Amino acid sequence: MSWFDDSIMARKGVAKGQAGATHSITEASQGKYHYVYGAYVEPVLTIDPGAVVSAETHDAFEGAIKAETDKPSEILNFPYLNPQNGPIWVNGAEKGDCLAVYIESVVPRGPQPRGTTVIMPEFGGLVPTADTAMLTTPLPERVKKLEITAEKGTVWNDRITLPYEPFIGTIGTAPEIEAISSLVPDYYGGNMDLPDVAPGAVIYLPVNTEGAYLYVGDCHAAQGDGELCGVAIEHPTVTTLRVDLIKGWTIRTPRLENEKFYMTIGSARPMEDAARGAYRELIRWMARDFGFEEIDAYMLLTQCGRIRLGNMVDPKYTVGASILKSISGIAR
Amino acid sequence: MSWFDDSIMARKGVAKGQAGATHSITEASQGKYHYVYGAYVEPVLTIDPGAVVSAETHDAFEGAIKAETDKPSEILNFPYLNPQNGPIWVNGAEKGDCLAVYIESVVPRGPQPRGTTVIMPEFGGLVPTADTAMLTTPLPERVKKLEITAEKGTVWNDRITLPYEPFIGTIGTAPEIEAISSLVPDYYGGNMDLPDVAPGAVIYLPVNTEGAYLYVGDCHAAQGDGELCGVAIEHPTVTTLRVDLIKGWTIRTPRLENEKFYMTIGSARPMEDAARGAYRELIRWMARDFGFEEIDAYMLLTQCGRIRLGNMVDPKYTVGASILKSISGIAR
Amino acid sequence: MSWFDDSIMARKGVAKGQAGATHSITEASQGKYHYVYGAYVEPVLTIDPGAVVSAETHDAFEGAIKAETDKPSEILNFPYLNPQNGPIWVNGAEKGDCLAVYIESVVPRGPQPRGTTVIMPEFGGLVPTADTAMLTTPLPERVKKLEITAEKGTVWNDRITLPYEPFIGTIGTAPEIEAISSLVPDYYGGNMDLPDVAPGAVIYLPVNTEGAYLYVGDCHAAQGDGELCGVAIEHPTVTTLRVDLIKGWTIRTPRLENEKFYMTIGSARPMEDAARGAYRELIRWMARDFGFEEIDAYMLLTQCGRIRLGNMVDPKYTVGASILKSISGIAR
Amino acid sequence: MSWFDDSIMARKGVAKGQAGATHSITEASQGKYHYVYGAYVEPVLTIDPGAVVSAETHDAFEGAIKAETDKPSEILNFPYLNPQNGPIWVNGAEKGDCLAVYIESVVPRGPQPRGTTVIMPEFGGLVPTADTAMLTTPLPERVKKLEITAEKGTVWNDRITLPYEPFIGTIGTAPEIEAISSLVPDYYGGNMDLPDVAPGAVIYLPVNTEGAYLYVGDCHAAQGDGELCGVAIEHPTVTTLRVDLIKGWTIRTPRLENEKFYMTIGSARPMEDAARGAYRELIRWMARDFGFEEIDAYMLLTQCGRIRLGNMVDPKYTVGASILKSISGIAR
Predict the structure, then answer these.
(1) D245 and D294 housed in the same domain
(2) Domain match, C267 and C239 both
(3) Domain of life of the organism in this record (chains A, B, C, D) (predicted)?
(4) Which chains are within 8 Å of C by 3+ CB pairs?
(5) How far apart are CA A91 and CA A43, in angstroms?
(6) Residue A305 has what DSSP assignment?
């Protein structure tokens, strides 16, 4: 994990990115899961920087969709969707700081078939929705239940098996005074559905209020760019995070670092605004921390910047903009 | 006010649209103003349907911008902007009901020059913003303080005086579990900045949670379509509302009725989605309550529907879609 | 017509806005109608500034939809839609000049029922299209044939008659080197579907190439804001234009003037970009010709600018931004 | 090149994807380069399916920007930008057919420094443009001239060298009746600026009119996703294409195939519409040619579809949607 030693988390974290005390949040200790990102509830756990937290996450439907004959529109109870573990209070975290969260692992749990994806009315990238309202008749509802193992992946059908490439669909901190649906991605993180938020990566999250209030949930066993029909391969997991705190490193929106690249994450509509926001933040990062003039970073990213589409289905679309560490002169 | 006798409010309201007890919310009785729309705070007032409530509203800057030499970026403290009166608990209101709010009057108050408009960084329709991020340098900040009277209007300069055409910039109910910045417009109302929300009109608001939690604030002395630079002629007022309750009339997004038209209000990005949402809701209204087939309403609105742009500057854009009552066969 | 005497057309036109020689373009003299705006064809008529031209326009379907039992998808032959009269060569017109076109009249012609509107697949504001691609099944096709007279208007059904409020759906000049479908609106005019392009108004069009190549067609007997289902009340007409030339008045996009306001017209996607383009051009106009600083115009339009939505269905959406002449200090 | 033997080009092409006669288009034989995609000019070359054509392409500025002290806004003469080789008439091509173009090589030519990128006013993804109009002052103009070799890549500065990863920025066929600026990408191809259109790939282009009228130009030595500032590393090349014809394989928009994936290409605004168009076309392709039900393809792409952003700066944004051939059961 040599790259990690040189990561921003390892260099700037209060705990230097090193693992401290371990904690777990089980279904029982979590009790009631949460459906908004906010600071109006009591933390379920209090930790010091460096703590390692394992959380039993539910799938996005809280396990309510059990059979392929289920009708999502009858079972699901909006807005009580996308249940989140947490919030976790991080000692010492204050507005203007940054949480650094190293994703240690995402491990599937629960009885088979533990994976679920669905077509449901008014949700998805190629159907009319509450946001992109139209008059045509919705597609028929459909549920697909899937066997998932970390070793074999997801058995889609007789011919197709998708590798297990798990990541966290929803993670973030509390806004300062808002409490926003866990279906939404925004400046504090939330429902970004970005496959790079995966084991082995560090996600950096802005701290907007004392204690940070970290939430996590909604893990996916696999997902394509855009999460096209709106529902990835949802599954319950044990997700393990190492949480550090960077004092005084103020970021406006989530960032991510892994072995290969630095990434900024923008969530907005229309999609070009998500891309603009991500790229501008990357330019500002390169200007503040990597010795570039803004205009030089702008010209260079034109030639080598990379875009990853997270979701094109949530209330805001999410885009990651990144630059490879391998490009000479970029890394620290 | 004969049209009102035939309004939905008069016909369906628990109080039949008639004025009941009067209440007032002064600066003193309000105490702390609010910056989110949500149900996480105690109501400042409890009323029965029919109640008439006069509220002392602040301007969107809570009066903090006092002189043309002020620098908004130094004075304003995001997210503590757009202060709201309320919330008002409406007895009997339950999820699935509708609040009908007849706007009796908006009267300017406070010492002259009581009007304020500003150019500030990262805000406005023709400048880069946090949402539409760009690299160009912001426009210079500017403050304009304006004399306003109901009789004379707003004195813009020696040559131009704008008539006093006041309306409510921000009004709405609490979301069910969210608490959303009062800078945002959405399904529950909020910062719509739509000039039709004016004295003499009835706005219909969905009730998302018991008690409804009605908020109001942000009155404008005048505003063009789109609120182009992001800041209308902001001013403190006494705003008087008659609040009725329609049981079991479930609406998804705000609606409005006045002497001349029925309107639905959509807030979304991009702007075409706001227009789509407003028009679809109008079609569904015509189908449910006015005897049209959906497709007939769609074809008819193609020929006579009207669009009013509220804002093109807030986190969601707001559009009103309307149909004239005068078109034979539309009105009840 | 006193306002006209003070119009830009009357003040700046080569012919001072006065009517000169009269010409007509009949179906016979037109021969082949055109489906692109471009300079690759021979002009059908050559005129001097001041000329008055009456053109027999077809409806947008070239009269091919004759009965309510017709199926548009079987009859229409894309891209041979929206037939245009012209092009008209204007003597003296050069790149950088401006055509000023006073719309004298639009008169319905042809046998009854002469009006047509339709629902057709992949076209309209509330259905999936080639641009906003989705998977849901199209609405059923539908044709509505309508009786239209200038006196009575359009008989929609037993209960509803819409007043005759005709305007020109498509008008413009040739691009410099492009030839663009007459279904598209853009910087040269084209398929704007903006109801203000009506008798009594002057539309100003940029000249992009020698001779200007004026085209016109696609007149509507009525249309709501946005032309929601994509097809207004289409009808064949005799449309009479007075065409003048303004030398050296270079405009980037179409403008319009009538008794009440000055308007700029933007066509773009998403819709906010159409509004941005229109408003910026209005600001620049106010700065160049009306004695404003740009930033003052920006602040003033925030308080009194007006937006008219033309179409929300064509390949680009069209928005008009205007300012009332009545606001003291704006008019010349 | 075993994958090629199983490509659609090899299986369905008139020439079975095999190389036939060789041709070249030099600067001299090309003569006048073209700035629109259309069928209003004489072909510069006529070929049979299977022909191999080498073209001397200019850079997007036709070599006019020679020094870092040049000011693009003074040198460039809009709309005479992005010069194209061609058109090439393909014998036997008729509307409804498909051109299959295997990109054999892109080789840099011309004196050093042969690479050019610039910042120019009103163009780029993070600045106001004619489409996204704003009032802020443009960034300062800037020109960067770069040494490029195929072996070493592009020398960006002392610290950074970018690998030579050339591709074709602009390629396509003529629209049926339109002639559209070579700055625009659309259904016929054009200025897609998609890095996957690279040596070793096959691009499939719809034939809209007899002879197809193939154009090509605008090669880039490297480009990041989105072509952020609007100008990649532009350079003159010798580009070699093998052109085959697939009779009766009607496609609506460009497609691409290489060793690893099948891709569909959408160009639209806003960006989500480009993604929607690309994904819908991929679903339809999977349904027509790969044995999927549409809804199954929709659900599967949700889990494994991939998005590549071409440009976020041209008049339409371009997005490629793809599926890996390696996913069991997808490939033929």
Answers:
(1) no
(2) no
(3) Bacteria
(4) A, B, D
(5) 12
(6) -
Estimate the crossing angle of helix C294-304 against helix C271-289, to 10 degrees: 120
The CA-based angle D193-D199-D202, given to 5 degrees, is 80
For the stretch C135-174, pLDDT in tens is 999 999 999 999 999 999 999 999 999 999 999 999 999 9
Task: Count Cβ atoms within 10 A of the Cβ of residue A75 and give its class: 0-12 exposed, 13-18 middle, 19 or more buried.
Answer: middle
> In this predicted structure, what is the pLDDT of residue C331?
54
Both B103 and B126 in a single domain? yes
A119 and A232 share one domain: yes
Give, in order, the Cα–Cα distances in Å from D19 to each of D51, D56, D57, D174, D255: 6, 19, 21, 24, 21
Q: Are D133 and B126 an interchain contact pair (Cβ–Cβ within 8 Å)?
A: yes
Chain centroid to Cα D28, Å, comes to 23
pLDDT at B328: 63
Query: What part of B 155-194 touches C (C-beta under 8 Å)?
Result: 156-157, 159-162
Q: How far is A233 from chain C (nearest CA, A)?
A: 21
Contact B139 D138 (CB under 8 A): no
- Verify whether the Cβ–Cβ distance D302 to A117 is below 8 Å: yes
How many structural domains are present in chain A?
A: 2
Q: Which domain holds residue A162?
A: 2-250
Token match 């790079």: residue? A196
Q: Dump the DSSP string for D171-240.
A: EE---SS-BEETT-EETTEES---TTS-TT-EEEEE--STT--EEEEEEES---TB-TTS---B--EEEE
Same domain, D272 and D242: no
B139 vs D139: CB contact, 8 Å cut-off? no
Pairs of residues, one from chain B and one from chain C, whose beta carbons lie less than 8 Å apart = 161
For residue A46, the cross-strand partners are A89
- Shared domain check, B285 and B224: no
Residue pLDDT, tens place only, B95-125: 999 999 999 999 999 999 999 999 999 999 9
Rounded Cα gap, residues C138 and C77, in angstroms: 19
Is D303's CB within 8 Å of A222's CB? yes
Round to whole Å and give the CA distance between C10 and C4. 7
Average pLDDT, chain C: 97
* Alpha carbon distance A195, A183 (integer Å): 16
Q: Are C70 and C76 in contact (CB under 8 A)?
A: no
**Strands C214-220 vs C167-172: parallel, antiparallel or unpaired:** antiparallel
The ipTM, to two decimals, is 0.97
Count CB pairs under 8 A between chains B and D.
Answer: 32
Instruction: Note whether residue D207 is domain-resident.
Output: yes
What values do phi and psi take at A73, rounded to 5? -65, -20
Same domain, B174 and B63: yes
